[in-house]
Specification:
The protein has 349 residues and is of the alpha+beta class. It folds into two domains: 3-125, 3-Layer(aba) Sandwich (Aminopeptidase), CATH 3.40.630; 154-333, Aminopeptidase, CATH 3.40.630.30. Helices cover 38% and strands 30% of the residues. It is built from eleven helices and twelve strands. It has helices spanning 15-32, 41-48, 84-87, 106-121, 135-143, 164-181, 197-208, 224-236, 285-300, 316-325, 340-347; strands spanning 3-7, 55-64, 67-77, 90-97, 127-132, 147-158, 184-189, 239-247, 253-262, 268-276, 306-312, 328-339. A twelve-stranded mixed β-sheet has the order 1-2-3-4-5-12-6-11-10-9-8-7, sandwiched between helices. A hairpin with a 2-residue loop joins strand 2 (55-64) and strand 3. Helix 6 (164-181) packs across helix 9 (285-300). The protein is globular, with a radius of gyration of 22 Å. The two termini are 25 Å apart.
């Protein structure tokens, strides 16, 4: 095959190439979930150019004549990231191919280009991180010497499966707790209030890192500045970011839950972080927060058919709550870690 490997500049792409990139995305989306509708072109264009300023990215296209049949990239947190010091030894790598072009050696050619770029630009890399959902990707990463660091899954709650009586029970119990212990349920949309943002971000980072992270010993970091930047990126993407949190009688934030809704994909909502600080656990705050949010989001957007969330398979407390809500595993994914010096010795010599 006479293939071309070209550097991708997301801000200087012809309309034909952009459409070919979107076509590849449609093929891969259909492979993963045949029933999932494809997003419209304007939404894709908006998401395509809204990059995270805390990451350094290098991307390439694989073309057969003028058709995009694959993409690959490497990325890492840059020095502006709040968790740069904890995570600087890690580099992310991703290679995706059209199904009909797999197992022809193309992945390995892309890998060599990517490894050389990492070696040139970020020689302090110790470990490569890559995620796979499809069996073809898992098999490829295992052959490269990858070890599973985190097993996770996308779990879905179809609204037809919700036990609303149970949700209302959790809401009632939560409101009774609020009366007895002086807990207040508060909320905001898209922008965290200035008077609470510093403590909220601290609790957000703490509870985010309480999740089981397997063999990954880095950190998921946030500052007020990076949180505000994320709010701004969501606004540019036309994403509504809903948050509910509990405030204790002494004014401290004890727990939170958040949901994301994208108007152009109005058949679903995404449940992001739900977390309760360790010292406030055992009072059913997590169940109350999730039930209140579920009731709110489905009342506000009756078009929603399901809620999607991602959990580590070892996150027993959250999986227990989700299972009782009606969530079921949809697709399992695996995060792999690969020793950088070993893979370079094999592929770069």
């Amino acid at each position: 095959m006479d293939l071309k490997f070209e550097v991708l500049d997301r801000f200087n792409v012809s309309e034909d190439v952009l459409q070919s990139i979107f076509d590849l995305g449609d093929t891969l989306r259909h492979e993963r979930d045949p029933d999932e509708p494809h997003p419209d072109r304007e939404l894709r264009r908006r998401l395509f150019t809204n990059l995270n300023p805390y990451n350094q990215n290098f991307e390439w296209l694989i073309l057969d004549k003028e058709k995009v049949i694959g993409r690959f990239d490497v990325s890492w947190e840059n020095e502006k990231s709040p968790s740069y010091e904890e995570n600087k030894k890690y580099t992310n790598i991703s290679i995706i191919l059209h199904p009909s072009y797999r197992r022809k050696g193309i992945e390995h050619k892309a890998l060599v280009i990517a490894l050389q770029k990492i070696k040139d630009e970020k020689p302090e890399t110790v470990t490569l991180i890559s995620e796979a959902t499809l069996e073809s990707g898992k098999s490829f990463l295992k052959k490269l010497g990858g070890k599973i660091a985190i097993e996770g899954a996308e779990n879905r709650l179809y609204l037809r499966d919700v036990n609303w009586d149970l949700m209302d029970q959790w809401i009632t119990e939560g409101r009774e707790l609020a009366k007895q212990e002086g807990v207040t349920l508060k909320s905001f949309t898209n922008h965290c209030p200035d008077d609470v943002v510093e403590e909220y971000v601290s609790v957000y980072e703490e509870t985010m890192n309480q999740q089981p992270l397997g063999d990954f010993d880095g950190k998921i970091g946030y500052t007020v500045e990076s949180f505000r930047e994320q709010e701004a990126r969501f606004a540019k993407q036309n994403i509504d970011w809903y948050t509910m949190y509990t405030e204790e009688q002494d004014g401290h934030v004890s727990g939170l839950t958040e949901m994301i809704f994208l108007k152009e994909m109005n058949h679903k909502a995404m449940q992001n972080l739900t977390g309760v600080k360790k010292e406030y656990r055992g009072r059913k705050l997590g169940k109350w927060l999730k039930a209140e949010m579920l009731r709110f989001i489905t009342d506000k957007y009756p078009s929603i058919k399901y809620i999607s969330t991602n959990n580590a398979t070892t996150n027993a407390p959250m999986l227990s709550i989700n299972t009782r809500m009606g969530f079921k595993e949809f697709k399992r994914d695996e995060l792999y870690m690969i020793d950088f010096s070993d893979i370079c010795a094999t592929y770069l010599g």
